[in-house]
Amino acid sequence: MELRSVIRTLSSPAALCGLVVTLGSCATLAPDPVRTAQEFEPGQGPGDDVPTLVAGRAILDESVDENGRWRSSGRRQSQARELVDAHPDSAMARTALAVTLAAEALVETPPELTPWRQAETEFLIAERLAPEDPEIARWHSRFLTIDGHLDAAAARLERALTSAPDDVPLLLDAMRVHFDRGAELRTIDLGERLVAVAPTDPDVLWMLAESRLRYAATVTNSDIRQRENYERAIEAFQNYRSARPEDAEGALGEGAARYGLALLLDDENAAAEVIAFYESAAERFPAEAEFVYGSALGSELDGDVVAAEASYRRAISIDEQHTDSLLNLVSILAASGREDEARARISRLLEIDAARPTVDQLPSTDRAALLKFLEDGLEEPEMVDDPETANPESVNPESANPDAGGLESGDPEFGPPEPGASEPGETSSSSGQN
Known about the structure:
This protein is an all-alpha fold and 434 residues long.
């Protein structure tokens, strides 16, 4: 799904230009974008009559493929240049030219610097001409997102939201950017506003549910608030699953929220509900080992090690490279004195791990613990608790962008929730939801 990976994996043109500046040649590529934009009078309006708007939008529409990627065309770029020459104060014409230039730059990997820098100039001119125009802001924010400047993209959209707070496409783009920034509270606030007008949009429901889950995992100063957030996350994932019942990710998210709630409540009924949910999901998605693994975690939470071991073995039979199940099975085997099988499982686990990319390998502390067990014999390996593996759905509150603002106190740069509001959707004046 596109919203889960808004930013393309590519080298940042801005970073590359910084390197060239160090070498002393970047300035020759194009005039400085900021200085060039400052030559235009700020806020003088879009400068667009209807024919210019229609022509600019036609160029923009043709510059995007069915997957939302920008595509290069010399013909469209020529049309955009002619439009700018005829209407130099048109924010729409400037934006059309900017997109065609950026699309040209993106043909190469890494992107070509000269057209990219020219695109930046045109976007800045368009922003200066029409700083709060929603349509111009959306195109500019996409450029900033591709360039890796999520905070700048968010600020650009928020500026436009001040004059168009009910613009649905603008709200959706802002929600996506804040979601990728890791700004959970702002994402939730925008998501609740969007659900009010588009209650079944699966993209909105997914981001809202995932943000609810992320936020629930960060609330540590109040068990009551944490419980409420896990319950809201469960409800949000159920809404998403109603919209996309065939997507296993929705069930994984709901399972993670249920498991987090069960850990918090620490009672038999909660653990039993986790087990029942994961067993039902395993029947619905029999090829997904993660659901059987989740059932095993529920059994361990319930104190039933025998059932947990059986479920770990089932998960491994579905996916023999399911690292989390292998790790937990090794711990059970070691604790119960079955050293021979534990050694065999560890050897297999290390073999699997070594074949993976470095970024996906076990933490060095876990690997060292496993190797120590192979050397020293019967003693349960002491694994370091890792939120990435302790939970069936990866939820790591430390993964949020450190520049995205505090997750519990709200994002100070972008406002919501209002001072005194305890949770998004309760008292936030912008969401209008109860």
